[in-house]
UniProtKB/TrEMBL annotation:
Matches recorded under SUPFAM superfamilies: Glyceraldehyde-3-phosphate dehydrogenase-like, C-terminal domain, NAD(P)-binding Rossmann-fold domains
Domain annotation GFO/IDH/MocA-like oxidoreductase: ranges: 240-339
Name of the molecule in the record: Secreted protein
Gene3D superfamilies: Dihydrodipicolinate Reductase, domain 2, NAD(P)-binding Rossmann-like Domain
Gene Ontology MF terms: nucleotide binding
Cross-referenced Pfam families: GFO_IDH_MocA, GFO_IDH_MocA_C3
Domain Gfo/Idh/MocA-like oxidoreductase N-terminal: 50-169
Length: 461
């Protein structure tokens, strides 16, 4: 807060106090604000070459590969996709030497590939991840880890059996910002957590998944029959291929795309295993383009008390019809402060209650007879003496350097695990505990029921 803003605030507070008839012992707020620049983690360069392949060369595929190739020693050698244009683009961007195929199994059969990125539509994640781990590959699987709960247990079992390196692609858990937020939370900076609220709103066609469809898309250039996997067979439909997030059969809607980011971050900060009750509601408001998932979803999650956190309630909201233009914020609200996270920074705002409650203002004191007021003041002074009556306001901010990329940090962690065998930062169990509540949001929305969840066993009760 600037000095000019602070003077305006005090002046406004003073005039408000006069308006309300605040007594002589009424408190003024004290405001302090600081900002700290966080330092990125140091990474040791390695000469060990990692030969990488990517399955699914859409938006996330190209984005992940571009990020992964910034890591020293990582080389892209192969890519798989069911649209020929994506494979042509791979060679244009990364070189003609990159092996491309429609059949992802050809990649898994190659002995010269160390790791694979799985960046396909959600309903393919489990099958490809399991096949890749069985083939001895390290796996970086985009979020949500799976489309169905039971698939998650199969991925966990495969990881445990094969001992494969498997990391889910919710990059926030590798962020230096969330690492600092976790330290502050565990240090009790916001007191006892009681409410978490987060929103991630948008208002654009691309933000609402109306992705561009290439003019050469056809049954000849797209292997639509293979794409459908075990879902209902139907004639070629480019929208279902290129805008797959709009359909329950292939994606996981708003919860799987966006809730899972917020849940992953919360679980990392608090050490939570998940909620015990989930209820979701919403509507299809603006994007009535044939999709069968809502564009507005609000979900409530009840988290039970554990050894790492008290019982609290979380509310998540995503609105693709936000006429204000959208925005994102996550707030962890405690009894002594609030942690607000957004982008590559967070702030802790503390509103510390005074030792003495004060009197006057919006209070019953002014309704007492004069003699009773005098008696009240004497008793008040005897009880509280010179105890502070000013409410303390303070804000501490923490920000990553300009240009900091938590996805790059996430890939650093993944490839370090590939090279050294150290545990990944987000394994299959963490992945299901993050995906589970998101998938339950869909279950609740479509069934119109409260869903009970066992966060330890990761099963619907």
């Amino acid at each position: 807060m600037s000095e000019q803003s602070r003077r305006k605030f005090i002046k406004h507070l003073g005039s408000t106090a006069a308006l309300l008839g605040v007594g002589p012992l009424a408190a003024l707020a004290k405001d302090r604000e600081t900002m700290e620049l966080l330092q990125p983690n140091a990474h040791v360069s390695s000469n060990d070459k990692i030969r990488l392949a990517c399955i699914g060369m859409g938006i996330m595929g190209f984005g992940d590969v571009n990020c992964a190739l910034k890591i020293p020693g990582v080389e892209l050698v192969a890519a798989a996709d069911l649209y020929d244009g994506h494979l042509t683009r791979v060679k244009e961007v990364y070189g003609k030497q990159v092996f491309t195929t429609r059949d992802y199994r050809e990649i898994l059969h190659r002995k010269d590939i160390d790791a694979v990125i799985i960046a396909t539509p959600d309903f393919w994640h489990d099958t490809m991840a399991i096949d890749a781990m069985n083939a001895g590959k390290a796996v970086y699987c985009e979020k949500p880890m799976v489309q169905q709960i039971e698939e998650g247990h199969q991925v966990i079992a495969t990881q445990q059996r094969t001992k494969a390196i498997f990391q889910v692609g919710s990059q926030r858990v590798s962020s230096i910002v969330l690492a600092e937020a976790r330290k502050k939370y565990l240090a009790g900076e916001i007191g006892q957590l009681n409410i978490v609220e987060a929103r991630m709103d948008r208002h654009s066609a691309l933000g609402a998944w109306q992705y561009s469809i290439p003019p050469d898309a056809s049954p000849k250039t797209v292997d639509f029959d293979t794409y459908l996997k075990d879902t209902t067979k139907m004639p070629y439909d480019p929208k279902r291929f290129f805008r797959w997030r709009n359909y329950r059969a292939y994606g996981t809607g708003i919860p799987g795309d966006l809730f899972v980011h917020l849940i992953s971050g919360l679980h990392y900060i608090t050490g939570s295993l998940g909620p015990e009750r989930v209820y979701a509601t919403g509507n299809l408001v603006q994007w009535k383009d044939g999709r069968d998932v809502p564009d507005v979803v609000v979900a409530i999650f009840d988290y039970p008390a554990t050894s790492t956190h008290p019982a609290f309630q979380m509310t998540l909201r995503v609105n693709f019809a936000d006429g204000g233009g959208g925005g994102e914020v996550t707030r962890l609200i405690g009894t002594e402060g609030v942690m607000e996270l957004g982008g590559n920074e967070f702030k802790i705002k503390k509103h510390k209650l005074p030792q003495a409650p004060g009197y006057g203002g919006w209070d019953t004191f002014n309704t007492f007879p004069e003699a009773i007021q005098q008696q009240f003041v004497k008793e008040y002074q005897r009880q509280y003496g010179t105890a502070a009556e000013a409410t303390e306001l303070s804000t501490s901010g923490y920000t990553a350097p300009v240009g900091y990329d938590d996805r790059l940090e996430h890939f650093h962690n993944f490839f370090e695990s590939v090279r050294t065998g150290k545990p990944v930062v987000e394994d299959a169990t963490f992945g299901l505990r993050a995906a589970g509540p998101a998938l339950l949001s869909n279950e609740s929305y479509f069934s119109k029921q409260l869903i009970h969840w066992d966060p330890v066993a990761m099963k619907i009760v």
